[in-house]
Write a structure and sequence with these properties.
mainly beta, four-stranded antiparallel beta sheet, WD repeat
């Protein structure tokens, strides 16, 4: 064994503050994938195949343990710190070592001995201690053996292919979850050997890794192709899939965002991000097998109080792959940062065969092609700082400009008091009816095309409607007549959306790639001689173009109270924030969804309920096939992402409850889903689905 000191050179592609190679060990290369182990101050790995090496990171001293005749294929630390146990497994025996006793025997000049708890089980791919360290789950071949010091407690005939990982559920007694190369996961009661649940085949590639998130009661599993699945373990959720993450796509999206923003402000970004975007045609792409999933301590990256609140209630986890390490945000399922081994010239290993991690963060990796094992120390804050400028971490203290650096025609619109609903139809009419759906209150006819949008005034006296006939009309609810008509000569394209704004002082409408701010005066009185002459007047105040888009697909502004903020989404999948007090765009968020946003929904509150002031900074976006995202205006970051409802092709609507605690969304599968949201920490969870005869495409 050879041990080298810190290798933190200052090469052109190396940032010594980000990652440092603390030690490099030379050993014979392993024949297969080996499970490595890391604890708070120790790392465990096989040395020269059949010797177990325990490296103390505090004293930088190795402890060598001999007891295996064949190559060690799996190593794991116990759950408790005192005494600290470690289990090593080969095809001929499984041994549990007490590190305190082993260290004492070495100091006395004696040979340390472990306790053999299993023999001749076959090729072992994974071992895991139970939460109380009294039992060990050994994944050997297609079976799982539950071992203790005295005997084999249970033998689970688990899967159709080798079992690659198993984890104990800490809050459910006797529950064990396993994944396998047969591409399924299973839930067991290992005390009785009973199979509780078996999933379907998730992918075409073997499942390699597994993590149980105790805080959110979820399991996360990854496959050899770079796909991640998150399943709920809450009792009444029936192991439903919460999210599916394609690591390759998330990496591509993250690189594009970082590279473009860095190029725009003239900032140095990761070398890999640059080469990734400039990759020549025909070049070979490396796969991203999910070798390890581990919790990540991401709080060190946050410095201001606002983002600290969000981070305290958000889970982050590491993804270990053959090419590098990734940090995933479990709240919005997006990539926060990644470390590519080949980006750093001070690292001896470019491609990893196996890896292990701690939260703080020590990383142990083995080389895929050579007999080397490296112990790395990663500075998470420095890693994030080099890839994400301050606008992604903390925002900007002065302005929102920081982010810029970086046919269903039936719609329902409720009145603020919930007594009446307005509806724009494809048959060119606007309906008003009672919210109990028992009677049609009024019908407005006059448009020559399908009605795209209907909006109530704050005083409940007026309705504004926009149509495919390129006209805008304001209707008097009481008199059942048109108060204002803006004809085709005013607009060069169809008006997609219109609403009252600033407590009925203005009208906002979007037309093509710009939105208009109109001032108006409504007068429904008639001259006896000129009854058909319109006495209402309307004047264009200003046009606001949205950058780099062909058409505005959604617009949102608050009319219930005074607000200068207007949000727009375009066909280029970007979201732009306008401050009408300044009269310009203040922020652009690129690639908000994988498709164009078809609705932006702000938390507008209600006069019938009170909310915390911070709650009004929240808004939601939705796109077909990409779920719902919850954003915060203070950070302009996606704080939460909601999936689970069916929205594959139709633009299903969303709405926020008056109390601000629920989001309602339509669905393709004839359901309306309710999601629970709290403002302080963005805690979320699906509560209930309501079944209907047809798909629900609008909510209000």
């Amino acid at each position: 064994m050879e041990s080298e000191g810190d290798r933190c050179s200052s090469g052109e592609s190396c940032d010594p503050e980000v990652v440092c190679e603390k030690h490099l060990f030379k050993s014979e290369p392993s024949e297969c994938l080996v499970q490595l182990a890391c604890s708070h101050h120790h790392c465990a790995f096989p040395l020269h195949q059949n010797e177990l090496c325990i490296w103390n990171t505090a004293s930088a001293q190795p402890l060598r343990l001999s007891g295996h005749l064949y190559s060690i294929s799996a190593v794991s630390f116990g759950s408790k710190i005192h005494p600290l146990l470690v289990c090593s497994a080969s095809r001929e025996r499984v041994i549990v070592w007490n590190l305190d006793e082993c260290t004492q025997k070495v100091q006395e000049g004696l040979t340390p001995q472990g306790i053999v708890i299993g023999t001749l089980l076959g090729t072992v791919l994974h071992v895991r201690f139970s939460p109380d360290d009294q039992q060990v789950a050994v994944c050997a071949g297609t079976r799982i053996y539950m071992l203790s010091i005295e005997d084999i407690l249970a033998e689970l005939d688990a899967h159709l292919a080798p079992v690659t990982a198993a984890e104990f559920c800490t809050w459910e007694k006797n529950m064990l979850i396993s994944v396998s190369e047969d591409r399924t996961f299973k839930v067991w009661d290992y005390s009785t050997g009973q199979l509780i649940y078996q999933s379907g085949i998730l992918t075409a590639f073997p499942l390699l890794s597994l993590l149980i998130d105790e805080e959110n009661k979820q399991i996360i599993t990854g496959c050899a192709e770079g796909q991640l699945w998150i399943f709920s373990l809450i009792s009444d959720h029936n192991y439903r899939c919460v999210a599916h993450i394609n690591l390759k796509k998330e990496q591509e999206k993250f690189c594009n965002k970082v590279w473009k923003s860095g190029k725009e402000i003239g900032q140095n970004t990761s070398k890999f991000c640059k080469t990734y975007n400039l990759r020549p045609e025909g070049s070979v792409e490396t796969s991203l097998p999910i070798l390890l999933i581990e919790h990540c301590d991401f709080l060190v990256c946050f410095h201001n109080q606002e983002n600290m609140y969000s981070a305290l209630n958000t889970s982050y986890f590491w993804i270990g792959s053959s090419t590098g390490l990734f940090i995933i945000n479990l709240a919005n399922f997006e990539l926060e940062a990644f470390l590519s081994y080949k980006d750093y010239s001070n690292l001896s290993i470019r491609f990893a065969r196996s890896c292990a991690l701690t939260r703080k963060v020590l990383c142990l990796i083995t080389s895929m092609f050579e007999g080397m094992i490296a112990l790395l120390e990663v500075n998470v804050a420095a890693l994030v700082r080099t890839q994400q400028s301050d606008f992604l971490l903390r925002g900007n203290k002065n302005s929102l400009l920081v982010i810029a650096r970086y046919s269903i025609t039936k719609r329902f619109f409720p009145l603020s008091d919930g007594e009446m609903l307005s509806c724009g139809l494809a048959d060119k009419t606007v309906l008003i009816f009672n919210s109990n759906l028992t009677d049609t209150y009024n019908v407005f006819a006059g448009h020559d095309g399908a009605v795209n949008s209907v909006g109530w005034s704050h005083d409940k006296k007026w309705l504004v409607s926009a149509s495919e006939d390129r006209t805008l009309r304001v209707w008097s609810v009481c008199n059942n007549e048109t108060a204002l008509i803006l004809g085709k000569e005013k607009f060069h394209k169809t008006v997609r959306f219109a609403q009252f704004y600033f407590i009925d002082a203005f009208i906002l409408l979007c037309c093509g790639a710009e939105f208009h701010l109109l001032s108006f005066h409504l007068d429904t009185t008639k001259d006896d001689l000129k009854r058909y002459k319109q006495r209402s007047v309307c004047k264009l105040v200003q046009k606001f173009p949205m950058a780099s888009t062909m058409e505005i697909t959604s617009l949102s502004a608050v009319n219930d109270f005074y607000s200068y903020i207007v949000l727009t989404a375009g066909s280029n999948r970007a979201l732009e924030v306008f401050d009408l007090n300044v009269g310009c765009s203040t922020a652009v968020i690129p690639e908000v969804h994988t498709r164009s946003v078809h609705q932006i929904c702000q938390n507008k509150g209600s006069s019938f309920s009170t909310q915390q002031p911070e709650a009004y900074n929240l808004f939601m976006t939705t796109a077909a096939g990409d779920g719902i995202k919850l954003w915060d205006l203070r950070t302009l970051r996606c704080e939460r992402r909601f999936e689970g409802h069916s929205s594959r092709s139709y633009p299903c609507g969303i709405s926020v409850s008056p109390c601000g605690r629920f989001i309602a969304t339509g669905s393709d599968d004839k359901c309306v889903s309710n999601v629970f949201v709290t403002h302080q920490d963005y805690d979320t969870g699906f509560l209930v689905n309501f079944k209907f005869r047809r798909g629900i495409y609008c909510c209000g």
